[in-house]
Amino acid sequence: xxxxxxxxxxxxxxxxxxxxxxxxxxxxVAVGPVPPxxxxxxxxxxxxxxxxxxxxxxxxxxxxxxxxxxxxxxISAFARARVSAQYTQARLGQLWQVxxxxxxxxxxxxxxxxxxxxxxGVDNFIAFLVTGVFIFTxxxxxxxxxxxxxxxxxxxxxxxxxxxxxxxxAFTLVQLQQLLMSxxxxxxxxxxxxxxxxxxxxxxxxxxxxxCVFNAGLALVMARLGSKMTDLAQLMPFILxxxxxxxxxxxxxxxFAAHAPAVVKIALDVNPAAVYIDLMRFALIESFxxxxxxxxxxxxxxxxxxxxxxxxxxxxxxxxERYGRG
Amino acid sequence: MAEHNDTAPGGERVPTVIxxxxxxxxxxHGAGSxxxxxxxxxxxxxxxxxxxxxxxxxxxxxxxxxxAYRGEAIGLIGSNGSGKSTxxxxxxxxxxxxxxxxxxxxxxxxxxxxxxxxxxxxxxxNVILGxxxxxxxxxxxxxxxxxxxEFSGINEKGDFISLPMRTYSxxxxxxxxxxIAAAKSHDVLMIDEALATGDRSxxxxxxxxxxxxxxxxxxxxxxxHNNKSIRxxxxxxxxxxxxxxxxxxxxxxxxxxxxxxxxx
Lengths: 326, 264
What we know:
The complex is a heterodimer of chains A (326) and B (264). With 326 residues, chain A is an all-alpha fold. Helices cover 67% and strands 1% of the residues of chain A. Mean pLDDT of chain A is 80; it is low at 1-38. In chain B, the strands form 2 sheets. Chain B has a 6-stranded mixed beta sheet with strand order 5-6-7-3-8-9, with helices on both faces. A 3-stranded antiparallel beta sheet of chain B has the order 2-1-4. Classes of the chains: A mainly alpha (326), B alpha/beta (264). Strand 1 (53-54) of chain A pairs antiparallel with strand 4 of chain B.
């Protein structure tokens, strides 16, 4: 294998015709079991005659969904295996599932609650902040896992056949599991800060489902981008941090943006991360009333989930046959 | 293989794999030679001139064409790095072609020792995940689990199946991978140097398993550096050298030429 840089394939393409005739007629000894190819048919005619299909071709969208559904056990088993392998190298093991979100919340409380005092206009700031941090972390880690979902599992992709969308979806499920752990911590904190469970707590479930679909779609998009653009893994932390600061994780958007121009206000309100965070706050925190919610918030949450979920899936499927290239 | 339906009603031979002018190019990141400095990367971004020297293209398969028929057992020979495994991956549809096409009957399966599983998971998880990824149902996996573990012989020296794969020796890992892949029967089967791994007793077991699989499969490809096992199992041999098809013919003829070539 002589490694030639840059122009190797291009040059090869130009001389394609002569190379091929050399290998098939001069180079290859055409004796024995090699009969004249199907009576003068071209390879594709021969393939059509015997009903052969192009290897590794991308299936249609409906067929792809069916294949993916038939691998649902693989997806869930993969996610469960990933979760259990996550902290095996650490001595405290699975305890980190709870410790990580707790420490995260403590750091943000120290900086934004105590040092910077962004708690203006927020009654139950601890619950407000912790909800924001946990819900945003769910989206953030789904994106980061999505970027590496294809590029970090090339060995698996080049070894076995399965719909590649299994990987980003499985990684989103891993993050969902992590979030459910965090939710227990979150509920404990919220109760400790004096909130009383009410019927609005039931809204947690639909909000989480919508966010999960949104995250899966986003992870699928990031997986396709990350499989081609290797720099993305380096760039994403900065983009995500900017996104977090714009999403009202540690301050109240409705309070801070009260005097902002209308365009800025709308942009902050339709931001999907802010939408899902606000829904969760509305569900859990008594003093976070519907006045603080942006208009049409459930429609926005549903819209983002559908657009991102379906769009991300189609976008990922479009490159299905190329993920093995790396 | 005479009892197989090798020929179509008209007496013609039925093709199972058609490879039409196949080219495969690998893009290797991080292979730059000092040119990949920060300043260089920045100036490349600004001027947009030339490709990234950090990405090197390796033209692994260069215009290979052949047709394989039902009932054939085809050996693939050639020196290391001649593109044998790469071509098999393309036939299996795991690696996209740069140009040219591969037509196959059904879904070909690649049985390789290079199949990377998940190193931080236990052998047990890998067996289950591998089976599910190959499209087995949960029940099938549960049913065959014991069989797979027993075949691999991983547990001969204690309970190793519950340890993470990263703690396995390379021979043990290869045995487990082969055992997982061999648990399923296949239409077009490609075996990539699977016979070379493992100790003598495992080799014997896997040879027997491959013979079984050959009976069930329509066409078998075998990559091996062991000319004896090629001679024993194959009736046709393709010789790849530097990504090009150098020779294609009956086993005896091609192996003779190959042995002359390698003796030099």
